[in-house]
Write a structure and sequence with these properties.
There is one protein chain. The protein is 39% helix and 17% strand. It is an alpha/beta fold. The protein has 2 domains: 9-126, Rossmann fold (3-Layer(aba) Sandwich), CATH 3.40.50; 132-409, no CATH class. Strand 10 and strand 11 form a beta hairpin. The longest helix is centred in the middle third of the chain and has 20 residues, at 183-202. The protein is globular.
Length: 410
């Protein structure tokens, strides 16, 4: 198996050199352990997937650290969060940097444990699946924001993607790119392993019901989250669906995109939109078994949008930036009483709001961005250039302040 160079590597190395500890989060199989073993090859390593190792860490922590001296990489650290109190004592007694490297697949549990025990001592980063840049060997590593500087820098290393639907369908898990692995076999095993190793530790539900739930959520990727609607499909209560959605978010399977909040947008919808992090997994669950079938399906638009949103999130996390405070969406009736208007993404940066539309078309029109002017109502913010990310083959100005961009610009 060949190692696929990850865009986040240099940022991880830098953060480890300047922090006492580093935590890398991300869903299972995105390559956390492979990355950390590669760039911290001289570290001792243990995994808390091993129950005997967890038992020793819990009951005999001094012996655990004698057997596993620093610098130490602890994989799946969320399975024994109690060890963090012991680690806090150790790192407080030394000024050394990079003493501990952690990885884990349950982000919110890890963040809670780290904030309670390790505040100010740990740098937290997130690894997603392979990005388009990584799949195509592109070294550019700036987060997507349609500024003049970004566009000029990105154009120095552009590559046209002629197989985009194959990649959307295949998904972003590294194993599918570094070995010849059957697509259906991989995702079948992934779902079984995910249910067995992660979900069963967090909820009490039979696997058939939970698989039905996963499928119902995958069918709604790119839509505004409606708990009652999903509950009706699955046949469980709405509070149960809320709990299960939270588990999917915590384990990195879905992302909840929050609406842009401003008192000036008084008629905006307040519910988040839900996106699967990996389009290959969403395709498997909803039984789109080939790229051609997906491309010509009724769900192609939502799957394309899901893919683009995921790529933009990766561009932030691969640069070590927390995107939660920068990326939103808007839907509401602030502009017109005749119906709802939407902006697929709003990227906020340095007091500017950049409206982004995501369209599965090779012939974008200026009226596709007709809602952008709603952002002019927001005080103390300026509207930046608008973008339509689509299947066009070159950068094209549709208006002076509106660009159509190929997705190769992400």
């Amino acid at each position: 198996m060949s190692y696929i160079e990850r865009a986040i590597s240099n940022v991880v190395l830098t953060r480890a050199k300047t922090s006492k500890c580093l935590l890398l989060t991300g869903s299972r199989q995105v390559g956390k352990s492979t990355l950390l073993k590669h760039i911290f090859a001289d570290y001792n390593r243990v995994t808390f997937d091993d129950k005997l190792t967890r038992l020793q860490a819990r009951e005999e922590p001094r012996l655990f650290f004698l057997n596993n001296p620093r610098p130490l990489f602890i994989d799946e650290v969320q399975k024994e969060n109690g060890i963090l109190e012991e680690i806090k004592v150790i790192v407080d007694e030394s000024e050394d940097r990079g003493q501990f490297i952690f990885s884990g697949s349950q982000k919110l549990e890890l963040m809670k444990g780290m904030s309670e025990s390790m505040a100010g001592r740990v740098a937290v980063m997130e690894l997603g699946g392979l990005s388009l840049r990584e799949i195509n060997g592109i070294g550019f590593n700036q987060h997507f924001a349609p500024t003049d500087k970004y566009l000029a820098d990105r154009e120095k290393e552009l590559k046209f993607y002629d197989n985009i639907w194959e990649i959307i369908h295949k998904g972003s898990y590294p194993e599918l790119y570094d070995v010849e692995r059957d697509w259906q076999d991989f995702y079948s095993s992934y779902v079984d392993t995910y249910l067995e190793r992660d979900i069963n530790e967090l909820i009490t539900a039979d696997s058939i019901t939970f698989l039905k739930f996963l499928t119902a959520v995958a069918a709604r990727t790119g839509e505004i989250l409606n708990y009652a609607n999903i509950a009706g499909d699955v046949g469980v209560s709405e509070p149960t669906i809320k709990s299960w959605i939270s588990i999917l978010e915590r384990t990195g399977i879905v992302y909840l995109l929050q609406p842009y909040s401003s008192s000036a947008l008084s008629r905006a919808i307040k519910s988040p939109k839900i996106y699967f992090r990996d389009t290959g997994l969403a395709c498997y669950l909803t039984r789109w078994l080939t790229a051609d079938a997906l491309k010509n399906s009724a769900v192609a638009g939502n799957m394309f949008e899901t893919f683009v949103v995921s790529e933009i999130l990766k561009s932030f996390s691969n640069e070590g930036i927390d995107y939660r405070f920068s990326i939103f969406y808007y839907r509401g009736k602030d502009r017109s009483a005749s119906g709802e208007n939407e902006i697929d993404l709003i990227i906020e940066e340095n007091g500017m709001l950049y409206p982004v539309e995501i369209k599965m078309t090779g012939n974008p029109k200026a009226n596709m961005a007709g809602t952008n002017q709603i952002l002019d109502k927001i005080p103390d913010k300026k509207r930046g250039i608008g973008v339509i990310l689509c299947l066009i083959d070159k950068k094209t100005y549709l208006r002076e302040n509106l660009l159509a961009l190929p997705i190769s610009y992400i």
